[in-house]
Design brief:
Blueprint (H helix, E strand, L loop, with lengths): L4 E7 L3 E8 L4 E2 L4 E4 L6 H14 L6 E5 L3 E2 L2 E2 L14 H9 L3 E5 H12 L8 E7 L3 E7 L2 E3 L8 E2 L2 E2 H5 L1 H6 L4 H19 L3 E5 L5 H7 L8 E4 L6 H9 L7
Parallel strand pairs: 1-5, 5-8, 9-14, 14-15
Antiparallel strand pairs: 1-2, 2-3, 2-4, 6-7, 9-10, 10-11, 12-13
Helix pairs in contact: 1-2, 3-8
The structure holds beta-D-glucopyranose (BGC).
The site of beta-D-glucopyranose has 16 residues, from helix 3.
Length: 252
C-alpha cells in the first residue's frame, strides 16, 4: 500500500499543509490538514509543526516535502521567502529525524510542476514546459520532454534592477494595491523575458492565481508564443508532487 499512498507535506511561508496522496491517481485520499507556519520559520520549529501534520494522519511511511528554496541532495541552498537559518541545513535529515520516517525534499515549484505534468495541465506534454507559480514569490519548474530540470529559480531573474518576483509575484499586486490589469502588465513583461530565454512550448500558470475565479481576471490580458494555460491542481499540486517524488522511498 505504501508504494501508492504517500504523505505529501508542502512547507510555505504562511502554512504547512499535508495529506496522504494516491500517487497513481494524483489525488488526495483525505482532505488536507493545515497548520500555521511558526514565525520566524526557523528549521527546528518548522520541523516540529511538520511532524504534527504527519502525526495528524498517524503516518509511518515515506513522506515527500516541498520547500520554498533551492534544494540539492536534501540540503537547502537558498531561502528567499523563509528564515535565512535554513541555508546550509540538511532538510531531508531534519525532517527524517523529526518524523521518524524516510523523507525526500524538493523545491515547491518543482513539486507543483511534477504534479501538473503527471495529472494536470502538463499531462503528456512534450518539448519544453515551464511551470510558474505566482504567490509570495515566483517559483519555476522546467520540464524537457517530461523530465524535470530542477531548481531553476526563475523568479530571481532581474527585472527593473530587482528580482522579478519582487515586481510580478501575486504578493506584489496586493502589496502595491495594483489593479489586475496593472499586475497583468507586469506579468506580461516577466513572461516576455522568460520566453526569450527558454522558448517554452507551454507555460503553466500556478499558485493561488490559478483558481478559476482569479484566472478570469487576467489570463485574457496575457500574450505568449507558448501555449499559456492555468494549472489544474491548484493548491494541492505541491502536496501531490511531493508525494510522487517520494515514491521510490521505502518505509523505515
Ligand atoms: C524561491 C523559490 C520558490 C518560490 C515560490 C522563491 O522566492 O526562491 O525557491 O520556489 O519563491 O515559493
Amino acid at each position: 500500500m505504501h508504494d501508492v499512498i504517500i504523505l505529501g507535506i508542502d512547507i510555505g511561508g504562511s502554512g504547512i499543509k499535508g495529506a496522504p496522496v494516491d500517487t497513481h491517481a494524483g489525488r488526495l485520499t483525505t482532505p488536507r490538514y493545515r497548520l500555521t507556519t511558526p514565525p520566524p520559520a526557523r528549521p527546528g520549529d518548522v520541523a516540529r509543526v511538520a511532524n504534527s501534520v504527519a502525526e495528524a494522519f498517524d503516518w509511518r511511511g515515506p513522506i515527500g516535502f516541498t520547500m520554498p528554496g533551492r534544494v540539492k541532495s536534501g540540503i537547502m541552498q537558498t531561502a528567499a521567502n523563509i528564515d535565512d537559518g535554513w541555508i546550509g541545513v540538511d532538510a531531508r535529515q531534519l525532517f527524517s529525524n523529526a518524523t521518524g520516517c524516510p523523507t525526500t525534499v524538493l523545491n515547491d515549484a518543482d513539486a507543483a510542476g511534477v504534479a501538473e505534468m503527471a495529472f494536470g495541465a502538463g499531462c503528456g506534454a512534450q518539448g519544453v514546459v515551464l511551470m510558474l507559480t505566482f504567490g509570495t514569490g515566483i517559483g519555476s519548474g522546467l520540464f524537457v520532454d517530461g523530465r524535470l530540470v530542477p531548481n531553476t529559480e526563475l523568479g530571481h531573474v532581474r527585472l527593473h534592477g530587482d528580482r522579478a518576483e519582487a515586481y510580478a509575484a501575486a504578493s506584489a499586486r496586493k502589496r502595491n494595491n495594483l489593479s489586475w490589469e496593472t499586475w497583468a502588465g507586469r506579468v506580461q513583461e516577466y513572461l516576455d523575458h522568460v520566453e526569450f530565454l527558454f522558448a517554452p512550448d507551454r507555460i503553466i500558470i500556478g499558485g493561488g492565481v490559478s483558481r478559476p475565479k482569479k484566472v478570469s481576471k487576467y489570463l485574457h490580458l496575457l500574450r505568449t508564443r507558448a501555449d499559456l494555460v492555468p494549472a489544474q491542481l491548484q493548491n494541492e499540486a505541491g502536496i501531490i508532487g511531493a508525494a510522487c517524488a517520494a515514491r521510490t522511498l521505502r518505509p523505515a
